[in-house]
Amino acid sequence: MIVFLIKSTICKAVFLALYHFLLEKEKIHVFNRFYLLFSLLFSLAVPFISIPLYTEAPAETKLLQPAIEKLPVVAALPVEKADYLALVFWVIYGFVASLLAIRLINNIYKLYKKAASGTKITYGSAKLVLLEGKTLPHTFLGYIFLSKEDHENRCIEQELYIHELTHVSQKHTYDLLVLELLKVAYWFNPLLYLYKKAIQLNHEFLADEAVTSSDKDVVKYQQLLLCKSTPHLNLRLASSINYSITKKRFIMMTKTTTKAKSAIVKMASVQVIAGLAALFCIESIAKEKPALVPSVKQEQQSGKVTRDKYFKGVRIIAYKRGTTTKTKVIGENIILSKLYEELTDAEIERYKWLLYVPEPYVKKSPSLKEIEEFLNSKKYAIWIDGKNVNNNELLKLTPNEIAYFSGSIILKNARTEKHPQPYQYWFWTHKAFDDAKMGVQKQHYGSDTIEFFQTMRNDYSRP
User: Fold this and answer.
1) Where does the chain cross the membrane (predicted)?
2) Residue 433 contacts by C-beta under 8 Å, 6 or more apart in sequence?
């Protein structure tokens, strides 16, 4: 969640900065409308987009840990205190989001109720809703709300009809509805409020352009806007004639943008979108280069030499039955007790699932996508350098700072009610990896005895 918010917020900030410092100043209103809506939706989607970029890498040997050298123990996770701070946050978030959702529904209901209460007249692609009393022209979806008295007395200028009809025909209300829905979910993000202001002003640019293109008397239209300027209507979803009667709108009415300049700024915005997509979406994946496969005879001979040296002097003790603890094997009825050198070829073949030499660990780092997955504390228990930590501690490390990571499944009978994670993962920084000599080939088995019983093969054998 945190990674999503960081990526999304960075994208919104970059897109808004580009708009305010470059695009908003140019008379390319249709493109700007598309840019604002697309960049907003893209910034919400970009954390979920992954574009794989495959690079060739040497094949790595699958790392296997000896089954008996150190019996694998599924550790019980320490009891964690309830995260009341997170609970308080979600309660506050849900409360505010609920209030905003109720307000949005109420505003929509009021506008539909107003539309139902007035006299309706078809006007082009819209319906005029004539209301009692004085009201400034404003639109919502396919409705244009007007004063009945002013309409019947022909006191409403033609420019105002064109202005409001543009809001209807270009479906500006849908843009605002999208913004309001996003504000319900992301009310804590101030950039959404800046987006709404930019989109509303863009709507006015579009409507002003429609008026000035049909009536070339720009000064007359500007005077009309000043005459109609009144305090804003308290209708968050409506487009009103006097929204932001500012210097920006007046300057834009007389401004021209050449085709060359228009092409340059449009290309710049496309480059920014492509750059952010490359930064946050492209994930480098190492594709293994096929390794040379040795012959079976060579592999056996190589393994024989290594194994003889590794297990030299180690006593192999097999029991018919037994149990295990965290530190040792408790067995009954010894069926084999020999030094490794005394084993026959048949016995070595029989116990080859046990008698293999672990290879040194090869450093590997997780991808950003994998780290995001490991942040899920309901699914993963996390250790960093041997210490059990909160999953969010991974955010303090970059992928390059992690030298190695591995994990295992926690069997159901080993999980607890408070810690039901099905997986546990260990992460090592470069210092811990090097201090533990994890990348160094072990020359000898770590104990002078290997004890096991027959059924252990079902639990610890490896492919």
Assistant:
1) 6-22, 34-54, 84-105, 263-286
2) 361, 363, 403, 404, 439
